[in-house]
Amino acid sequence: IPPGAALLSLACSSTQAQEPVRLGFMDPLSGTFASVGTSGLKVLEFAADYLYNSQGGILGGRPIEIVALDNKQSPTETQLQFRRAVSEELRIIFQGNSSAVANTLNQTISRHNRRNPGQEVLQINYAAVDPILTNEECSFWHFRFDAHAVMKLEVLTDFIAMNEALESVYIIGQDYSFGQVVADNSIRLLREKRPDIEIVGNEFHPIGQVKDFTPYVTKIASSGADAVITGNFGADMVSLARSIIDSGLDIPIYTFYAAYDGITATLGEDGKDRIRLIHTDRANPIPSGARSEFNHAFKAAHPDFDVTQSRLVNALMMIVQAMEQAQSEDPYEVALQLEDMRFTNIGGEELYMRGEDHQLIQPLFVSKQTDEGIEFDADNSGFGLLTEYEVAAEDTALEHSCRMRRPRR
Fold it and tell me: Is the pLDDT of residue 86 over 60?
């Protein structure tokens, strides 16, 4: 061996061990829905540091680096940011907000991966819940870590059906794929479970464009509805709920995204015992010491933010486990390890990534906004979510229509 060769080899090995594992995060970081994307980014960055970087890294000592990509929640901007990701060799991308964006990214990644074997990109979907993504448009390169809209609606409509006093419901939502899925399936499931409940309204509005929901709420009031169902999120959720409450309507509002990111603080006392949320996170009481410690540490680091998307933590932990099992960060090898993975998260919940369609099977919960029995509030408001109803993971699984085309290597 030539003099110095061993030292050079050792130095190269050490340098490689210290190179970061770079993961992309693509969501709105500016514009109308910036608060949603920014809070998710904070959670993912903190999880990477708290769980891994502070413990010596992964894959033999490599730190995780999160690279932020602002897609402004625009399908067009998503394609531009994807090109940037490819140029920067980001091969695993987290994305969640807006099913329209997720569908665009899914199609873009599938096309890219067909044309560029050996340079594939993996889509980690932590919040886009259009069922089509793990059904007709399922892809080997896409994994969903949220429950899709119909899975959530099965649970939510069960909960609604138990309220015997309800006689009529008004459905309102954003006019895009997810909003339409919520409306269509709410109607179908309520007719199956409570045919006596009358659907007195079914209305869509432009996403991110309505500043004053008073005209919509006037229709809700005149309909005589006993409750509202909505899939609205972000600024649209805040404005809709605020208008309903300001109108004097004292009816329950069944939602997907009516918490955190300023929504809880805006509603405050007026939302108490009125806002109901279907979600994948077990809310207060916090289910484990490990999750409580994580949340406290996050709040200490980011006093103005909350752990809004624990699905991001689940996704990161499962991906790291897949990398460690494969001893690789290659998207294809990571995907193979993720398929059929069973995992216990820091809350103690059992999760299962179904290999047939890449849909995570997990418990689902319905919670209400309240200031009683709360360890962790939202928006530093004194109000948070208290779990009222839960369904075990195995009871949330639905049949799928995925016919996945698997790549060959």
Answer: yes
